[in-house]
Design goal:
By secondary structure, the chain is α/β, with parallel strands linked by helices. It folds into 2 domains: 160 residues, Aspartate Aminotransferase, domain 1 (Alpha-Beta Complex); 244 residues, Aspartate Aminotransferase, domain 2 (3-Layer(aba) Sandwich). 43% of the residues lie in helices and 13% in strands. The strands form 2 sheets. Strands 2-8-7-6-5-3-4 form a 7-stranded mixed beta sheet, sandwiched between helices. A 5-stranded mixed beta sheet has the order 1-11-12-10-9. β5, α9 and β6 form a beta-alpha-beta unit. α3 runs antiparallel to α12 and α5 packs across α11. The longest helix has 35 residues.
């Protein structure tokens, strides 16, 4: 493809994407294809000769698009959002076109210094302590692994990288923590038995007294408390762990405190929601994902640390071929995480913050919070439904409850979820809270408005009535 063809097809793809953004609501939210259906239509061997872009793009529309689940659909109420936005998409195009590998300052000075600046912007927007500094990781899972590895090194006097773990370490999380914590604990060499799952209260938040009790018991057994992972906005219910109490416990026992605020952290850009981060001054590390609720397309995870020296000491390696004459003057972000190679992720976050402004982002978040409260009000006014968790940000957890036994209620709500999603107009997911099947209404998609939330409620109410009448 020469540059003239690139220009021609580039314009066509941008036009198609602009139309897609306008028309995404006309697609079923979840792809209806069956397993293996798309693969069966893809040739088993690659083409020997070049194929024209026209044919490739036709196959994209006819073969690939039907198998896409549309995360940007305004009826997306599942999992957490993975938002994009026009400015972010354009920045991603520039990133791909530049093709920069941003492992050290010298390989792209602008990438390193823009990342440093944008992270300072974000720290200020979230109200994090001034002494915190950060970098962009790909996902919260990676950021959490970085926190676990740094906590491991600090607890062992930076010896475990050299000689391996010599003593059993302990990691403490709530029973509602994200599954990436267990995966990170395994990868970091702690072993899954190192995890102590701390009980939660009636709001599904970690109980600090149980945490301290477990730490004291472990010390008596000769174990070494290493890291506590507190969550601001758990995946199942967006429960808020009490950071202040947990932080004081960590300080008393010299344990690393990592705060996972992957989704809900964005709400802290609002002054009225800053209370979510009360106690953040005790945190050693913190993660929040702009690729969830800040209009920056995947992947872009903001990872902040109080002591960057500990992070760097955990990860830095100095092969001769990466040394430069500027190393003492700059930040080489390859030493701030697992990857050597790094994408220019800061560009899209910069485009988004500048295009919307902090006030524009606040307006979007406030609207999603309002819509969640609106939906919650409709739910509570309907005697057929039961709220299952506090609405701390923009997730509403609920179930249909006509008084039948618990096991039958679980089956009833599973059927309700299936019938709602089969309409293709909205998509919700479920979870389990204390063994009870719960539906999650997650409001956070950029294009979702009140009419879409109303449509979701009407569908839920209609399908609930059909199920109850049929039973």
């Amino acid at each position: 493809m020469d540059h003239q063809q690139f220009r021609k097809y580039g314009h066509e793809l941008i036009d198609w994407l602009a139309d897609y953004m306008d028309e995404v609501e006309t697609f079923p939210v979840v792809s209806p294809v069956k397993p293996g259906e798309i693969k069966s239509r893809i040739p088993a061997s690659p083409p020997a000769s070049a194929e024209p872009m026209e044919r490739i793009f036709v196959d994209f529309r006819d073969l690939i698009l039907p198998g896409i689940t549309h995360w940007q659909h305004p009826g997306w109420f599942a999992y957490f959002p993975a938002n994009n936005s026009p400015p972010s998409v354009l920045a991603e195009l520039l990133t791909a076109g530049l093709g920069a590998q941003c492992m050290i300052w010298q390989t792209s000075p602008a990438a390193a210094e823009l990342e440093e600046s944008v992270m300072e912007w974000l720290r200020e927007m979230l109200g994090l302590p001034e002494e915190m500094t950060g970098c962009i990781q790909d996902t919260a899972s990676t950021a959490t692994l970085c926190a676990l590895l740094t906590a491991r090194e600090k607890t062992t006097g930076y010896q475990s990288n050299r000689i391996g773990l010599q003593h059993p370490l302990k990691v403490y999380t709530s029973e509602e923590t994200h599954s990436s914590i267990e995966k990170g604990v395994k990868i970091a060499g702690f072993g899954s038995n190192a995890i102590a799952s701390i009980a939660t209260d009636e709001h599904f938040a970690m109980v600090p007294q149980e945490l301290e009790k477990q730490i004291i018991e472990d010390k008596k057994k000769g174990l070494h408390p290493c890291c506590v992972v507190a969550t601001i906005g758990t995946t199942s219910s967006t429960a808020i762990d009490p950071l202040e109490d947990i932080g004081r416990i960590c300080r008393r026992h010299h344990v690393w405190l990592h705060v996972d605020a992957a989704f809900a952290g964005t709400a802290a850009i609002l002054p009225e929601m800053r209370h979510l981060l009360n106690g953040i001054e005790y945190a050693d590390s913190f993660v929040c994902n702009p690729h969830k609720w800040m209009l920056t397309n995947f992947d872009c995870s903001a990872y902040f640390v109080r002591d960057p020296g500990a992070l760097i000491q955990t990860f830095e390696i100095h092969p001769e071929y990466l040394k430069t004459g500027r190393d003492a003057e700059v930040k080489n972000y390859r030493d701030w995480g697992i990857q050597l190679g790094r994408r220019f992720r800061a560009l899209k976050l910069w485009f988004v913050i500048r295009s919307y402004g902090v006030e524009g982002l606040k307006t979007m978040v406030r609207e999603h919070l309002r819509l969640a409260q609106l939906f919650s009000g409709w739910l509570q006014a309907d005697a057929r439904f039961e709220a299952m968790a506090p609405v701390s940000v923009s997730l509403v957890c609920f179930r249909l409850n006509d008084g039948r036994p618990e096991l039958q209620l679980n089956e009833l709500n599973a059927r309700l979820l299936q019938s709602v999603n089969e309409t293709g107009k909205v998509f919700l997911t479920h979870t389990a809270l204390k063994g009870k099947t719960v539906l999650r209404m997650m409001i956070g998609q950029r294009t979702t408005s009140e009419k879409h939330v109303r449509l979701a409620w009407d569908i839920i109410a209609e399908k609930a009535q059909e199920l109850l009448a049929g039973d």
